[in-house]
Amino acid sequence: xxxxxxxxxxxxxxxxxxxxxxxxxxxxxxxxxxxxxxxxxxxxxxxxxxxxxxxxxxxxxxxxxxxxxxxxxxxxxxxxxxxxxxxxxxxxxxxxxxxxxxxxxxxxxxxxxxxxxxxxxxxxxxxxxxxxxxxxxxxxxxxxxxxxxxxxxxxxxxxxxxxxxxxxxxxxxxxxxxxxxxxxxxxxxxxxxxxxxxxxxxxxxxxxxxxxxxxxxxxxxxxxxxxxxxxxxxxxxxxxxxxxxxxxxxxxxxxxxxxxxxxxxxxxxxxxxxxxxxxxxxxxxxxxxxxxxxxxxxxxxxxxxxxxxxxxxxxxxxxxxxxxxxxxxxxxxxxxxxxxxxxxxxxxxxxxxxxxxxxxxxxxxxxxxxxxxxxxxxxxxxxxxxxxxxxxxxxxxxxxxxxxxxxxxxxxxxxxxxxxxxxxxxxxxxxxxxxxxxxxxxxxxxxxxxxxxxxxxxxxxxxxxxxxxxxxxxxxxxxxxxxxxxxxxxxxxxxxxxxxxxxxxxxxxxxxxxxxxxxxxxxxxxxxxxxxxxxxxxxxxxxxxxxxxxxxxxxxxxxxxxxxxxxxxxxxxxxxxxxxxxxxxxxxxxxxxxxxxxxxxxxxxxxxxxxxxxxxxxxxxxxxxxxxxxxxxxxxxxxxxxxxxxxxxxxxxxxxxxxxxxxxxxxxxxxxxxxxxxxxxxxxxxxxxxxxxxxxxxxxxxxxxxxxxxxxxxxxxxxxxxxxxxxxxxxxxxxxxxxxxxxxxxxxxxxxxxxxxxxxxxxxxxxxxxxxxxxxxxxxxxxxxxxxxxxxxxxxxxxxxxxxxxxxxxxxxxxxxxxxxxxxxxxxxxxxxxxxxxxxxxxxxxxxxxxxxxxxxxxxxxxxxxxxxxxxxxxxxxxxxxxxxxxxxxxxxxxxxxxxxxxxxxxxxxxxxxxxxxxxxxxxxxxxxxxxxxxxxx
Length: 938
What we know:
The protein is flat and about 145 Å long. The mean pLDDT is 81. It has 4 domains: 2-192, Arp2/3 complex 21 kDa subunit ARPC3 (Orthogonal Bundle); 251-424, CHASE domain (Beta-Lactamase); 558-713, GAF domain (Beta-Lactamase); 716-895, Alpha-Beta Plaits (2-Layer Sandwich). The strands form 9 sheets. It has a 6-stranded antiparallel β-sheet with strand order 18-17-16-21-20-19, sandwiched between helices. Strands 8-1-11-10-9 form a 5-stranded antiparallel β-sheet, with helices on both faces. It is 53% helix and 18% strand. The termini are far apart. It is α+β, with helices and mostly antiparallel strands.
């Protein structure tokens, strides 16, 4: 078990599972409808994790707490409740973790970290601060959150808060000692407490837990029986109410059968007693079957002639269209509130007419589904019962006869909510709510739209059905929040609470007794081990300081980086003989790691260079990409080493840790890695050691970079990065000596941009600088690796063409070679430059000097090339001139010829002539033509 806790991810996973499982067990003991439990073991798990591992297990504890609380408060009955359950779960889980972190912080403030808890006062403060004191936090936040979201009422606040606080406190008093016995350091001491603390404490708790589960189960069965009893009362009341209403329709039908010609006044007298007795009735109606020829004969003694009407598309009542049959509302009671229904042709409502047709064809009463009444502008959910009345008060045998002899229908109209409310009004002290569905449609519900959360709902729910004539209503019954509070018996809970409290105090007592027993025995061992450890640490520290100073001395002396790197690695490996080290350097593009030093790693490691930079690319590639330490205990199974497992086998290593090497500005410039033959994880001292050597490596690199920057500033142009005059003169001197020794020739080209000052003054120095940078890039592109391009200042550049080890640079071939390179440079400069998204054209004048024929001094060579350049510029710019007189003449002549030919082509000075050629024998046959090209030179 200890091995698993050595892994960061394993620790978090174990603590997440432990918290969730303990919370689940606690929820089994929770008191509905909240999640407050008389014993919350998860609080003990969280405190133990925060105390022993701190932030290392924070993700696991937060995950476990989040899952537990979301499980406890999850309610997807509506979007609103789902959102509230997420909020409550998040707040409570954060409060639970904050409570554990607070408890661990208070304990560590009062008690040293990893204390074995052998002293009575330390045991007391540990359990008091981690339990009752810190547990105030989660109880207060959690209970207040439940109150704000109406999960509990105001008068329940103190009881729920006390239950929560006591449950968390008992969880700490009982389960924190159990976990400390299993995983706390020092293991030698805590392991001895297993039989004296863990076993008796676990036995007592298990016994009490079993008793409470049994008692709680009995209590839940009792509450379920009460709920079923109340549900039966409500169901019976609803059924009786609906049956009485159906019987009213039967009564009216019998009256119409007995007295065929009932007048409107008689209908009024008949229905008045029924309406008084059943106040939930919306209307009682007589709806005769009227044929087209009879529709103008309807007269009411109270309301005069009755016009049969129907609603148009806008809802306005208009006279009915012509059709063979009508079913108008003829008699109507009560009239008040139902005025719009008088004369309304019910057959224009598809749902109502379908019910009338079914009643007519079957001879039975038929009830509609949820229907909108024409007179109800409030859109209440209503239903209508239609009962057919036939001529001669006899039910015809066939459907055709029934359709022919139908006299009309008696209609009973009611609002569903009124009927249900009338049935429920007779019941007292009922804490049950219900909803009613007609098929899939909801037709009644007294459940609040915003149903409060019930974290522990007991799963109380009953579903029953009521057959209503041709339809079936489904009734679903649920307990209200007050149901649990009124029916819950607290006797069992108080008894178990007292038992768990005694168990918690027992845990404290067992810790104190075992601590006293182990104190004397282990104290001597601990002191001895500490003394030996201190001596070893001092020796190691002295060795480390000595090695550290030796490395610093090498850095101060500016020894080569490779030597310093090797010294760092050999020093680290001498301090820890079981490890192998390497230093890898990050390239300027931050894409690859190159070998800095690895003197004791095998050739296979060197052959694997360079290593790409990226997440999940080995240890070093990942560390360079993330900028964080990467610790891999098993390179043979870790996914980051999937492409390097063969390399690991060849190296014979199993573990690898890599630290990023950072510059003073925080940028990653390399990695420092250590390898182990066996699987290991770094301890604190090893982490500090690696960090120290990584910093020394960074110091050496930065010192070398600083020295290189000084050289760069002294010998290179700051704008273009080209060698400056100083470096050029030094290189020229070396080239002159080499040329004299090998009897070869070399060349310098002195280049000046034409009209650069005009461009610089008109467009600004920024544009001018950009142009100079691009010119430098083009010059470098025209040079060979052994050549040098330099900037003297302003717009003056020099290109040195080396003639050493080159067959084209003999004294005879050098002028031609120099001209070819100069023309290449001139062509490159003549191409358009893109400056601020605009194209600009620039030319240059080039002067050429060949050495050593033209001089031996670098300054003389520059002067000669400069003179040739000015000669070139004075001859019309964008020209090339040699300094040597003879070569200058030949080169100038050839150059002039080339320019003349180019000008002749541009100005069409060439004329083409064809001279025919005939056979000499007969002078008649044309055999060929001679082509002549003449240059009409101006």
